[in-house]
Predict the 3D structure of the following.
Amino acid sequence: QVQLVESGGGLVQAGDSLRLSCAASGRAFSSYSMGWFRQAPGKEREFVASISRIGTTQNYADPVKGRFTIPRDNAKNTVVLQMNSLKPEDTAVYYCAANPNSGWTSISLRENEYKYWGLGTQVTVSS
């Protein structure tokens, strides 16, 4: 089992950058592929980005491609969501998630593939 805690959310202006961190505790962090999801008000939670257990494979949702990156540091048990050129439509609660059933280079795109979730951190982008 792993516990996930997100941090780094806040209120920023359009065009700004923000760095979200997800700290993991418990079972070996490299056992999990990791993902970021987000949920905007009145909308369903959606996939943002994912990274494989050893960081060699990454995938991004179309709306964030070229603006967001998802590096991980297995030695520090953290995964980051670096968000650049933020837009008002990026406003949402952002969740970190862990999938314990991935291969070394596999990524997971669907919510139901992730077993463990953080409580989320709010990101608000003003125009």
Q: What stands out?
A: The first strand starts at residue 2 and ends at 7. The mean pLDDT is 96. Residues 19 and 111 are 22 Å apart (CA to CA).
